[in-house]
């Protein structure tokens, strides 16, 4: 993973250069992504539900890197990630300004840092006003706070992000998102500070469907079978039905 340097555009990740992922983790990632797809489909008709093109793969990828002690900030963008992390749907009414979410992430990250247990805060959010983001990012950078920002682009400029590493990733590529999330979260746990992850649409991407893309990827590795998917769907359908309105 390459960090952003001052006066340079954000790094682009997702094609090569990362460590290997175990077969078990690939299966965990697929199961998480399938749950996201099923839950997103069920919630799509719910008034106030925040539909975001980058929500599925990013939520699945990040959740596979988290520990129970970590915190996913409750925001409209984080509904799927909160469900995967806690098993519960978070009540997250839209705030007038996303700055509220940035403030919450800073406070939680400060608590995790003080506890010295390797915990971190994860924030799924849209962009706030430049001045508000500059203040939040400056505080996080100065104190090397353990926080991962997953934003719906464009990536904030170097001036706004206070030099925090910013990485642009294909929003439909769960494997790339997992690799970047894993490296970023490991860095945060080791007191390396925050990272900004931008989930972006790849205009030239021949397969923008994250679930289908991952199925094809796993099939090529002989890790995917339709009957396995069907068994997972049956399992998760019952759980989601009990959890959702």
Question: What can be said about this structure in brief?
Answer:
The protein is of the alpha/beta class and 245 residues long.
General description of the model:
This protein has 245 residues and is of the alpha/beta class. It has a single domain (11-243), classed as Rossmann fold (3-Layer(aba) Sandwich), CATH 3.40.50. It contains 9 helices and 6 strands; from the N terminus they run E-H-H-E-H-H-E-H-E-H-E-H-E-H-H. The chain has helices at 23-43, 55-63, 79-86, 99-115, 130-142, 158-161, 174-189, 210-220, 226-243; strands at residues 11-13, 71-72, 121-125, 147-152, 166-170, 195-200. It has a 6-stranded parallel beta sheet with strand order 1-5-6-4-3-2, with helices on both faces. Helix 7 (174-189) links the parallel strand 5 (166-170) and strand 6 (195-200). The model is unreliable at 1-18 (pLDDT under 50).
Descriptors:
single chain, 245 residues, alpha/beta, 6-stranded parallel beta sheet, 9 helices, 6 strands, disordered N terminus
Write the layout of secondary structure elements.
Elements: E1 11-13, H1 23-43, H2 55-63, E2 71-72, H3 79-86, H4 99-115, E3 121-125, H5 130-142, E4 147-152, H6 158-161, E5 166-170, H7 174-189, E6 195-200, H8 210-220, H9 226-243
Parallel strand pairs: 1-5, 2-3, 3-4, 4-6, 5-6
Order of strands, main sheet, comes to 1-5-6-4-3-2
Beta-strand segment tally? 6
Query: What is the number of independent domains?
Result: 1
Main sheet attributes: strand count, strand direction, barrel closure: 6 strands, parallel
Nearest-angstrom radius of gyration?
A: 17 Å
Note the run of SSEs as H and E: EHHEHHEHEHEHEHH
Quote the beta fraction: 5-15%
Structural category: alpha/beta
Distance between the termini: 40 Å
